[in-house]
Design goal:
There is one protein chain. With 632 residues, this protein is an alpha+beta fold. It has helices at residues 3-7, 46-50, 58-62, 72-90, 145-171, 186-196, 204-219, 240-260, 262-268, 295-324, 446-455, 459-472, 482-512, 565-570, 581-586, 599-608, 612-615; strands at residues 9-12, 22-29, 32-40, 112-113, 119-120, 340-342, 345-347, 357-359, 362-364, 383-386, 392-393, 410-411, 434-437, 532-541, 544-553, 556-563. It has a three-stranded antiparallel sheet. β2 and β3 form a beta hairpin. The longest helix is centred in the C-terminal third of the chain and has 31 residues, at 482-512. The protein starts with a helix and ends in a 17-residue tail after the last helix.
Length: 632
Amino acid sequence: MSDNEENTRLVVDPITRIEGHLRIEAEMDGNVIKKAFSSGTSVRGIELILQGRDPRDAWAFAQRICGVCTLVHGMASVRSVENAIKTAWKSNAPLGVSTKHGPMAPPQGQSMPDQHGRGKHGGAKHGPIMSKPAILSDADMEIPPNAQLIRNIMIGTQYIHDHVMHFYHLHALDWVDVVSALSADPKKTSQLAGSLSAYPRSSPGYFKEMKSKLKVFAESGQLGIFSNAYWGHPGYKLPPEVNLMVLAHYLDALSWQRDIVKVHTIFGGKNPHPNFVVGGVPSPINLDSSTGINARRLTQLQDAITKMRTFVDQVYLPDILAISSYYKEWSTRGEGLGNFLTYGDLPMTGMDDPDSFLFPRGVILNRDLSRVHEVDLDDPTEIQEFVSRSWYDYNAGKDKGLHPWAGETNLNYSGPTPPYAHLNVDQSYSWIKSPRWKGKPMEVGPLARVLMMYAKGNPQARELVDSSLRVLQLDTSALFSTLGRTLARALETKMVCDNLQSWFDKLVSNIKGGDTKTFNPLYFDPAYWPKEGKGLGTMEAPRGALGHWLVMKNGIIDNYQCVVPTTWNAGPRDPNNQAGAYEAALQDNHSLFDKKQPLEILRTLHSFDPCLACAVHVMDEHGKEQIRVKVR
């Protein structure tokens, strides 16, 4: 790196309104970003903590990777264990292990099997009961349909909560000028809101009250939750009435979300970090019971789903379209890679049936929506992680790519001693690895999923995308952008909302038909586990493709590797000097009006919804710090 490059380097650290610690360094040509470098500046090491533990416990540790992305790591972890067990069953692998934990109780209201699969209460003897594999039918291996539906409802709720909260409380302020709202006319704001939807909280009096609250903040000299931003920046284009309307909805969303998270508490006992169980869900169904899933809780669930659909249909989606109409130039900025990956999720049957997924699995290359490439998650040559520019070492060398089942987490910080002016981007510069599919960098997340559904001909996806683009008077090329990414997040939220009602209706129908099973105890008993096994748990987290790869031996975890959405998107350059998704997006047509107020950088980064806690997932197995960085 030359002295001239250092002199033209713009540093934004930390990036605010995200989860975790992200640093961006951009080489500038005047006010234009020439090259961008993304650095995750903290590391945690959850993967190391999981080694040597009982696989049934893994979800509880993995879920603590992130509190914002609550649920998703727990779900991926449970699926990885189930996949390892089911793969062994199908291959007739030797079964039966002992565990250091001894007997473990099943979920409340469920029972453990004896060695023939018959249920009996009181736990199982976790010795090698079986000397040869049992002959299990497909029905024996099934995760109960009710459990699949409950998982879908919990995941779907996470999507809706996460996307709405991300937009209003993290991303909207990149487009909405709080100070401008002080000059809004509440009556005109009411007329605007009424023209967009039938949302009841749209009277002139309501917006007058919202404006008064905002005025109190401003006159006190402090904007509170709206402080430390670039108000008045020329990049803000919304009329005062649009600004006031969206800020009112910002405050509405704070109240709305309190009711939405109750879905997780009903099925999982709490939020964040609801409870899960290998083999199903810890949610016994008994309509006549005072505990578990009863008639009262089903009514609460329906109320929550109705509130979700109302807010998305009448507030979130109309706001996105209204805001987007003033920022159409952002439909040509911020895409970068043109490559998109989805693992697929939300099955109608099970994770073994990708054809039943609401979100399809596949790869799109070079913006070509006419062809979807297949993805083999087990092939060691397809998905690999590289560390050539990361603060890790591989035993085979830093330029070697490793499939997650063979993954290594060997920490080696070689960066400058803090505080520092710049990173040495010619060498390692991030705690995030660089995942690749067949050697290619990929973008994951809402845009990837919507494009995949569109390319595969999903009728609702096509209708929503086409109608939204008609409203904005844009063509499909606009999807490949910062604006397209933001629009895609809202459109998939609408789709998940609608399917949420379908999953709930099916669950109620099953219960009315007498099916109340939510747990398959065979997965929970080590007598039915392989002596050695490998499992893969995937899901589409709100931020994109999430995978947990597990190796288990003799009843404990031997290796555990997570490849998370923000690792795909925020990773640094690879051995071939290919930029990651964040870096490529910032290099795509970004000119800054004022380098001291890099609003344009925030807009594109927030369109990905970064979660650095997930990506850098240092403690040892006893919870002791491995590294401490002092910020001055």
